[in-house]
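Bump. Still looking for RNase H type-1 domain-containing protein structure tokens.
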Amino acid sequence: MVILSGLAALLGTTTETDNVGALILSVLEGELFAIYKGLLLAWEAGFKEVYCETDCYEAYVLLKDSNIPFYSEESVLISRIQNILLWPWRVELNLFQRTANRVADAMVKHATIHVVHYTEWLLPWDDLRELINLDVAIS
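Sorry for the wait, here they are.
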């Protein structure tokens, strides 16, 4: 099982292969794009059980709704994510409180400051370890 969590800070970037609303302009679009890319990465890595977390209520509600009643900038991306959720695997999409997201926020800030597009950490850095310990103590 893999756990996907966090927000992609991809403001002003484009994707050539995805052909999905290339310019990220809002928090909602950023969250949806992070979910989309995370699901694709999990699929390509061969995971068959995925636990996907978001702290964005609007993204969660839009993805849980099978009918998108309006056309918006996000509707194409929402449709693509909903299609991915139908692939032969188990994906659980969950909403959690933003206050429980300190670790993901620290990782996004780190990636934004260091202009990192994709990184795998084998061990957390000291400040991140403190946040992990705090989150574990609270939960």
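Confidence is low (pLDDT under 50) at residues 6-22.

Edit: fixed formatting.
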